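Bump. Still looking for Reverse transcriptase zinc-binding domain-containing protein structure tokens.
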Amino acid sequence: MPPLRYLGLPLLASRLTIADCKPLLQKIDERIKGWEGINLSFAGRVQLIQSVLMALNTYWAMAFILPKGVIREVEKRLRTFLWKGHSGGGYAKVAWSHICRPKEEGGLGIRNVLALNRALMSRHLWRVITSDRNSIWVEWVTTIRLRSQSIWTVSDRVGSWSWRKLLRLRPLLLPHIEYRIGNGELFSIWQDPWHPNGILIHHFPRGSSLMDLSTSDRLCKVIHEGQWQWPVTTDIDCLTILHSLPAIHGDTDKIIWLLDGGNFSTAGAYTVFSPPEPKVDWSSLLLGRFKIPRHNFILWLAFLGRLSTMDKPWIGNGTGMCVLCGGNQIESHSHLFFKCPFARECLRAVRRRTRFPWPNREWNMDISWAAVKWRGRHVVNMAYRALLASLVYRLWEERNHRVFQQQCRSFLFARDFSGRGCSSTHY
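Sorry for the wait, here they are.
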């Protein structure tokens, strides 16, 4: 018998299984199947993944900790739809983990499903940590699950599967939380992480008895008129506690989220579960109001060296030679952009019309040069960025015409493709 549902989500008292998540996978499949007859570009598929398919996943990820098997199935569908346009198997040009990086780190800005699920669920944990009194669920957790314990000390081996999974997010959130001491009425001496050494009961389990304090005592018991006033002790463990006490700030106790200016957000929590990677200098070349998404996607692949050029061992025309110039040069990114005689002729045609300042040395060197010279919001720099994307896109388009359709266009097409390319905003 299928589980009862509320607002499209299963009502379960047990562990969420892959079978329980079939409606999510079916909805994703149905959406993808409905788009199969549409001739979508890569950029169009990226937009649909971000605005439609990820929204379906997010609705479930806000309510449940998704099993890893479900996350793998969701990512498999997103990945194959991006590269093939359907939910079947297909060859991926770029690793999914790289695609899920922010744009400034060389990715496409699609959210990592696992990290997003953890970030969304960490909001529930944050509400318990801060004792959100407007939440009936928090009141229930405090009364039934925690009782006299803190959220930081309650065992993650007891309770439902979802509850245990939620508690295992605590070590990841803790470095980004600060307990700022005021009057000490809200914080537990032994069970809250207010001390630089962490949760005291974990490091000094005998401390409470040696100081003649209870494990449930609040910090206000050792604060008097805004100053620390601990029991006298000679125990070395207790002295370790006393020698590194934090400052007292007065007023009330506060729990502060150290990211996003102190206000907890899912976006900030996402960076906890998906740590930043080094930024790439060429990401600025994909920005600007003149950008054409389908052009930028091909340019992005060219920056990564992931276009299906003939120099790759699993791709080729038997010889690996460039089909644009018909010469004896191996087709590679560096050759296509713009060492190939055909590409150089196109570049000259563009320069005659636009004064396009491309140095045309080595591809990677030229990318770094352009990333420095064309940064910012100046209209000329934005036009140059759009023109580069258009030029790369049209060259790759012509190359594919010759490889797959055996159609050759003359050098004359270079005279007008820059104007045509920069006038369209279609995906």
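The chain has three domains: 5-111, 120-273, 281-421.

Edit: fixed formatting.
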